[in-house]
Fold this sequence. Notes:
Layout: E1 3-7, E2 10-12, E3 18-25, E4 33-39, E5 46-51, E6 58-60, E7 68-73, E8 78-83, E9 92-100, E10 104-107, E11 111-115
Parallel strand pairs: 2-11
Antiparallel strand pairs: 1-3, 3-8, 4-5, 4-9, 5-6, 7-8, 9-10, 9-11
Amino acid sequence: QVQLVESGGGLVEPGGSLRLSCAASGFTFSSVTMRWFRQAPGKEREWVAGISGTGVTANYADSVKGRFSISRVNAENTVYLRMNNLKPEDTAVYYCNAWGTWGFDYWGQGTQVTVSS
């Protein structure tokens, strides 16, 4: 049974930092791409960042490039999203996604990030 469990969200002031974690189980973690998405109130879910199974390749949305960093530790079945210099517009529910070209596509339950003074 595939499970993705996010943690690390919370309330932070503008300019602050958070690190989100996503613990995975029930599949071969190193064989899938891991991605982070977010959804703000009243908006569609948007892709934030992705990292290949080996961790060699990472990509970012323009809105977070230079501020966010995605990483993974395959030995721990965990993917991280380090978020620096947070802005109010980063406020959203952040979701972890496990994706493979063969139709493998699973989501976590999400973790709330609120950036406010």
